Every structure is written in structure tokens, then in C-alpha cells.
Amino acid sequence: MGLFGSIYVGKSGVTSMSAGMGITADNLANLESTGFRASRALFEDLFARATTEAPPYDQKGLGSRLKDVEVLYHEGPIKQTDQPSDLAISGKGFFVVSDGHEIFYTRDGQFLPREQEGGRLRLSLPGGYDLLGWLCPEGTACESLSSGPLVPIEFAKYIPGRASTKITLQMNFDASKPAEETNLDLYQKWDATEEEPLPQGAYDFKAEVPVYDSLGNQHTLNFFFDRTAEERVFEFFVTLDPAADPRGSGRYQGALMGGKIRFGSLGQLEGLEDLFYVTDPTGTQTPLTTDDFSEEGFPLLRLNLDGTEQRIALDFGTFFDAAENSWKRLDDHASTSFANPYAVLNENVDGYPPGFFETLSVSEKGIISVRYTNQETFEVARVPLANFASPDELERAGGNLFKAFNGATPEIFAPGRTAPGAIFGGALEGSNVDLAQEMVRLITLQRTFQSNTRIITTADQMLEDFLRQV
Q1: CATH architecture for the domain at 166-349
Q2: Which of 256, 311, 354, 360 could form a disulfide with 300 if both were Cys (CB 3.0 to 4.6 A apart)?
Q3: For residues 106 and 432, what is the distance between their CA atoms, to the nearest angstrom?
Q4: pLDDT, tens digit, for every residue of 80-138?
Q5: Under 8 Å CB-to-CB from 198, ≥6 apart: which residues?
Q6: Would you tell me how many other CB atoms lie within 10 Å of the CB of residue 4?
Q7: Rounded to an integer, what distance in angstroms lies between the CA atom of residue 311 and that of residue 308?
Q8: Which regions of the chain carry the CATH code 2.60.98.20?
Q9: Which residues, 6+ apart, have CB-to-CB distance to 463 below 8 Å?
Q10: How far apart are CA 416 and CA 109, in angstroms?
Q11: Distance of CA 198 to the CA centre of its chain
Q12: Which ranges constitute the DSSP H helices of 149-209?
């Protein structure tokens, strides 16, 4: 190889190191880019064999060139943020996003709720790419979702009120209270024409339970409890503020339902009996029939709060088994009768008022829970992750996005602690660029670049010296 060949070899080194410098500069420029994946330059030698020369002079090294730019997919640091919709991946996987036409993959989890038509909110990147996942149908546990078509994750900005359909009351009835001498029940004591329809002293205990109508308006039901003349038997009487009863006026305005609760000798709940409705303000009693029980076997309280009939199941911890014609106890929340004061141990009422979106949270399993201003929380979707068998199946697309190369298909999996990757809500993954390593590489590239330029200038000087002698 002559002097001219040395110049071209030096030029190849300068070109290669310039390309490497650009890759290092790109890494350093993206040191703070969320979810950025660093790259490194891979070089190879240029070689030729001269057919007109004898060995070993026929082997010619012609310099170097950039062989490939390898993307490094190891994890970056996870940083906590104050934004609950920020998501970070621990482990393998990519978020799946779309612009409505193409599918992209990213480790950038800087998602924000973006308003859509129809009062819906959709989780999207600032650039407009929508996060894809599995939506949870109402009544389905999101954790059970692990496959299916991916669609943009969205949820309601506003939810209307929902009417109450069930009241669960787990109570202790004071067994130390003596049985009544006269069997005058609460129904007979009620008088809506008085300032206090049921004055204090006429009952042992009162519980106020909020319920909601179909418009989400809140109403208060009064549950009165009292001993009866029979041992281990208590009565209950459900009423409404007489002024809120649309059925008209009369002594029994506001009176809704009554019955008795029977306990065993050990304080265990045995069942309900003598259940009746107060069907009108004049006090007409109608015993409950089999049609007046829910599918689960709970007695139904009938209400008319907003012009439409509303039925609410009453669950004291027992239900009626129609097949066996007997009451069965629900041991996990059955009421009791011990020698302790009356107390409401557990109160749960479904239904809620209207509410606007307030905040959301994301579990490590990718389950998105949305909370509204009415304090109701719903699981709305699950975020899956995409994993590729080989890094060669991805190519950079800009904007912290990747595209599948040549139609490669990833494995879609549900995240979690035992899965290849898990999700952290309220956090972002930083760039995986190693600053110290990049600075060392920068110095190495600089020195190599200088050495190759020295080859060019040295060969040039030698040519100049030769030409001077000619």
C-alpha cells in the first residue's frame, strides 16, 4: 500500500470516529429523555486481498467502517413523580401505544388523561399517542384479564348517580336488655302527625342509613330496633322522614317496613320473621311473599323517592333459602346478640351520587383504578406489556418510540411481580445512558480521531517531501 492508500485508510478512521462521535453525542443529548435507550457504535475492519501480489503482501487492511448501531435495552433508573398517571416499567417489556393508524412501543410512561368527545378521558402521551390495553367490563375483575384485543384506555370524566340496591347491616343486639312486659311493637308506636313520630324511649337503638335514588340524590333511612316480649327476639322498623314520603299524609306517613330478628341461645342469628310492608299512610300492612325477596334471598325494602319504585335488599347476615324453606346464616357478616351494647359493626350501602374524575392509580399488575369526587373508585382497565424475543426486532422511530421491524410480533403479557415486567404508578423511568461510560468513550473517540488525522497529515507531508525531490 502506498502513501495514497494510507491517506484513504486514515480517512476511513476519521469517518468511523465521526459516526461514533455522533452516536455518543446523541446519547448525551438524551441524558434526561424519559425512557430513552442508549446506543453504541460497532466498528469493523475493511480488508482486501490483492490477486497480483504474492503472500503475505496480498493481504491489504483498508481501514474501518461503522458496522452497526446497537440499541442498549437495559433498564434505566426509576424516579418517583407527583403525577399518578406517570408509569414506569420494572423489568422487561414496552408500553403499546398508537396514533390511530400504526402501533408503536415505548418505555416512556409520561401519560396524561386527554379529553375525548362524549365526555371520555383517554390516557395518552404528550405527542398524542394513546396507551393501549384491556378495558374491564362492569362486574369483571381486571386482574382476570390477560388476553384479548388492545384498545385505547379510556374512562368516563363524569359518572351519573346510581340508585341503592342493597343495604348490609352487621350489628350486635344487646342481649342484656330485658324482654318487654307488653307486646307493643314499633309499628303501633309510630305516629307521623307528632313532631317526633317515634320518640326516644319508645325504642332501644336507632341507626341512620344513607341511600340514593336513581338520580343520585341522598336520602336517610331510619332503622329502629327494640326488644320484644319474646326472649331472644328483637324487632326492627324502617322509616323515612314523613315529609319526604310521596305517598300522601296520614299517621303512617314515612313508615316503610318492619319485622323481627330471632337469635339462638348462644347469640347466633337464626333468621327473620313476621316481615311486612306499610303500603300506604293509613297503615295498611302487607306481609312479604316469595316475590318480595331478591335472587340471593334477602327481603326487599320498597321505596318511591323520585317517582319510580326502588327496591333495596336488606342483609342482616341471613338469607332465605327458598329450596329448603329456611333461613341460612352468612357467618362472615352475620349480626349477633351478646350482652354488649347495641352497635353497628359493619354498614355497607351501594349506590352513589354523581361525581367527576378526581385521580387515578395504577398497581404493579397494571390495573388502573379511577376515583371520582363522590369517593367512588372503579377498576377500568389493565395495562399490558409487550416483549420481543430479540432486540433486533425493534427499530427506533423517534419521540422515544420504537416500531416492530419487518412485522415482528411481540408477546403481550399481563404485568406483575411474577411476570417478566411490573408497572410502577406515579414514577418514570429515566434514560439508561451511563454518563461516565459515555465520557470515557468520548475521550477514546477523540484520541482515535486525532490519530487518524495524524495519519492523513503525515502521509501528506511525506508526499510533499517526495515531490520536492523530484
Answers
A1: Sandwich (2.60)
A2: 311
A3: 14
A4: 998 999 999 999 999 999 999 999 999 999 999 999 888 899 999 999 999 999 999 98
A5: 186, 189, 190, 191, 224, 237, 239
A6: 10
A7: 10
A8: 166-349
A9: 3, 4
A10: 17
A11: 47
A12: 186-189
